[in-house]
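Reviewers of the previous submission asked for a worked example of the structure-prediction workflow described in the proposal, so we include one complete record here. The input consisted solely of the amino acid sequence. No template or homolog information was supplied to the procedure at any stage.
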Amino acid sequence: VRPWRRRITKKINQLGRNMPQGWPPGLNRTKIVPFQPKTPLPVLRISKLTDYGTVLLGHLATNQATVCSAADVAEATGIAPPTVSKLLKSLARAGLVTSTRGTNGGYRLARGPHEITAADVIDALEGPVSITECSASDGDCEHEGVCSVGGAWQRINVAIRKALQDVTLNDLVCANGSVPTFRFAGLPITVEKHGN
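From that input alone, the workflow returned the following structure tokens.
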């Protein structure tokens, strides 16, 4: 036996002594450590671009009387001009804002802020909400035929979608506005406001 192989075998056998009872020595050569983040990871989270998109729409909602150029929106919100342009074009394609060309051109909301929902914004910038493969309209889960929890996840997805449809751009802009009431499994959910 070659010397390097003896050293490796000896090391594996040493590691094997620290293994749980019943494990053959040398079976596990990699130490598995459970991942524990320092802060809890969010379960559902919108992208930074969608967050920025709501900021842009909020600016347009508070300036409905004027047509705002992309440069004006970028300056007012502090978001980089290329990002603002990209987002405004996506929001225009989705029909949430209208654009006007020319020297006095710019962007404005296509509908009133009370008619644009959080679901509309997410659909425009991220696509429809689907928390599992089977809850997507074009989902193709290979386990769908034998899955016993797919229906529950679809109900949860519908509840999340309804909650997003219940919050309008007007609600997002009014920081001191009332907190919408949500229900889960027939029970009301209390949403606490922090700050102020």
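Residues 110 and 125 are 16 Å apart (CA to CA). We consider this example representative of the routine output the project will generate in years two and three.
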